Amino acid sequence: MSDYEGHRGKLIPTDKKPLQCLDEAGFDWSKWKSLSRDDADDVLDRFNDHFYRGEYALIGDIVYKVVSEYYDNHEMVWAKKNDDGSYNFDVYFYNGGCSFTEALEEAITSADKEGD
């Protein structure tokens, strides 16, 4: 069921690739016989499904480690880029209209535009 949700925390850039994250998380490719570890689209789809609200987010071509807490507050999409390349974020959104990663992408895009 769709609802509003809020997350506050930090995105920390990693040098990991989506397939590496799936392997480390123990993703079982044998359950998905129609999918291939060698197909970039399959890997990205499984990554986004597996880490829907999890420990990683793929934004652009960078895999970020997500450290966050859930809260119930108000509608907001905000991020601030730190000197080390990480982002502090605060997103509150309707999960029937966008995903957690989409809310993070919007916040980072806004933060990067403000930094220019």
What does this entry show, briefly?
With 116 residues, the protein is of the alpha+beta class. Helices cover 29% and strands 33% of the residues.
Could you describe the 3D structure shown?
The chain contains 3 helices and 5 strands. It has 116 residues and is of the alpha+beta class. It has one domain (4-115).
Give the strand order of the largest sheet, numbering strands 1, 2, ... along the chain: 2-3-1-5-4
Beta-strand residue percentage: 25-35%
The 3D shape can be described as globular
**Largest β sheet strand count, sense and barrel closure:** 5 strands, antiparallel
Instruction: Give the helix level as a range of percent.
Output: 25-40%
Output the radius of gyration.
Answer: 15 Å
Provide mean pLDDT, rounded. Answer: 85
Count of all domains: 1
Number of helices: 3
Please report the total strand number as a whole number. 5
Low-confidence stretches: none
H/E element sequence = EHHEEEEH
* Structural class by secondary-structure content: alpha+beta
* CA-CA gap between termini: 38 Å
Keywords summarizing the entry:
alpha+beta; 5-stranded antiparallel β-sheet
Q: What is the element layout, followed by pairings?
A:
Layout: E1 4-13, H1 18-24, H2 40-50, E2 56-59, E3 62-71, E4 76-81, E5 87-94, H3 100-115
Antiparallel strand pairs: 1-3, 1-5, 2-3, 4-5
